[in-house]
């Protein structure tokens, strides 16, 4: 990380939480669980966005961010659904889309779209966050 990124981080502008919003049928679930377990060793907070019928997806993301004491601006959502991408962007969060081979979701507005969790770690989360927030690395 360069001095500019360290400066932003010192001001609290850094990823603080990762919210998983993957469908239960997602082929990524086993990899996502391993990835989430690995993130727990980092300073990032991790939570699963289990659906609650009465909330919109944007409200759900904001509630989860609040429970983790992380501003929405400092949250990264990993989702495999178009409405997850739109909900996270509406909430002001950074989005990593996961494109399943069997799903037809486009995920075009995501800050980054993956087809595999291979190589995904906390450093990639930081890079995507920095890119989305236009913070030089």
Keywords, separated by commas or semicolons:
Rossmann fold; alpha/beta; 137 residues; globular; five-stranded parallel β-sheet; single chain; 5 strands
Commentary on this structure:
- With 137 residues, the protein is an alpha/beta fold.
- The chain has a single domain (3-132), classed as 3-Layer(aba) Sandwich (Rossmann fold), CATH 3.40.50.1000.
- It is built from five helices and five strands; from the N terminus they run H-E-H-E-H-E-H-E-E-H.
- It has helices at 3-10, 29-39, 57-67, 82-90, 122-132; strands spanning 17-21, 45-48, 75-79, 94-98, 112-114.
- The protein has a five-stranded parallel beta sheet, with helices on both faces.
- Strand 1 (17-21), helix 2 (29-39) and strand 2 (45-48) form a beta-alpha-beta unit.
- Helix 3 (57-67) packs across helix 4.
- The longest helix is centred in the N-terminal third of the chain and has 11 residues, at 29-39.
- It is globular.
- The mean pLDDT is 84.
Supply the number of helical segments: 5
Strand content: 15-25%
Distance between the termini: 6 Å
- CA-based shape: globular
Examine the secondary-structure arrangement and name the CATH architecture: 3-Layer(aba) Sandwich
The CATH superfamily turns out to be HAD superfamily/HAD-like
- Gyration radius, rounded: 14 Å
Rounded mean pLDDT is: 84
CATH topology: Rossmann fold
CATH classification, class level: Alpha Beta
Low-confidence stretches: none
Main sheet attributes: strand count, strand direction, barrel closure: 5 strands, parallel
Physical arrangement of strands within the biggest beta sheet? 2-1-3-4-5
């Amino acid at each position: 990380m360069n001095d500019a990124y360290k400066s932003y981080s010192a001001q609290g502008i850094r990823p603080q939480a990762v919210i998983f919003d993957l469908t239960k049928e997602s082929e990524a679930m086993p990899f996502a669980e391993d990835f989430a377990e690995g993130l727990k060793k980092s300073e990032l907070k991790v939570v699963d966005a289990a659906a609650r019928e009465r909330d919109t997806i944007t409200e759900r993301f904001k509630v989860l961010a609040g429970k983790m004491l992380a501003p929405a601006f400092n949250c990264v959502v990993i989702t495999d659904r178009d409405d997850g991408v739109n909900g996270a962007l509406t909430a002001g969060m950074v989005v990593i889309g996961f494109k399943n081979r069997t799903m037809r979701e486009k995920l075009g507005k995501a800050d980054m779209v993956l087809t595999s969790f291979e190589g995904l770690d906390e450093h990639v989360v930081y890079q995507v966050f920095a890119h989305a927030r236009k913070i030089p690395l």
